[in-house]
Structure formats: structure tokens, C-alpha cells
Design a protein that fits this description.
With 162 residues, this protein is mostly helical. It has helices at 3-20, 35-56, 63-86, 92-112, 118-147. 71% of the residues lie in helices and 0% in strands. Keywords: Membrane, Transmembrane, Transmembrane helix.
Amino acid sequence: MGYARFGAMILASTLVMFGLMYLNTWSVDHLAFSQTRAWMALLMGATMTFVMMLFMFGMYPNRRANFAILGGSVLVFAASLWLVRSQATVGQVAWMQAMIPHHSIAVLTSARATLRDPRVRRLADGIIETQLREIAEMQALVADLQRNPTPAEAPALPPRTP
């Protein structure tokens, strides 16, 4: 098996993982491209690259290339982890596009959970109502901001810190 095939396998697996992250959304209209999910897919692809290369190191004759692949996977891992944790590239529209499927997951798990205690069911029903309302609000805001972007000179509000 050559290096091109190894790379194609990693690329295909990373793209599949990206798609799989959307399977637990409640509704198809809650699907939106998410930079955060893209960075997470890269993080997982880099991890998979590193682990697979360790297991298959002996199958590939070029030790320098093998170590370069290991080093490259570490760099991609570090960069994608920084992108996920910092949210440096995620603006307001991208943030909402990431939050819509995230909220949709809460709707799915709350709607489908087998809950016996009425207090817990009420909590889950409240989560469903709130998340669906927020999804609708975000979808409307995304549409509005895509038609009428916030002026670049508008000051950005500082992020909250825990």
C-alpha cells in the first residue's frame, strides 16, 4: 500500500467523520456547515493518521516520510485543537451555523429519551421548546445577516470567560 493510498484513506475517513457528526440532528433543516465540526474532523483525522502510521510504520519503507507524516499529524492536531478551543475563525454567522445542529442534538436526545420521572420529562420538554425557539431565531438571524451584514467598523463585543 503506497503513501497516496494512505493519504486517500485518511482524507476519506476524515470526510466521513465530518458527515457522521450531523447524524444526530433532529431535523434536516437544522443542518448547516459548521467550522467547529470541520476543525473537530481534522483533529480526529490527525489522530487517526498518527495512530495508523504507528501501527503500519513497518509497512512503509521510507522512514523519513513516515516520521514526516507523524510530525505533520501532530501539527494538524495542534492547529485544529487550537481552532476548536479558540474559535478564532468563527464569526457570528458561523457561530450560529454551528449552534443550530448543536441545539438540534439536544432536541433529538430530549425527545427520544425514555424518561419515567415526570419532573425530568417536564425538563426535557422545556429543553425541546427552548432549543426549537432558539434554532428558529438563529436561522432568521443567519438569513438576515447574510442579506445585511454587520458593518465591519462595528465594535466586537468581548468574549465571556468562565
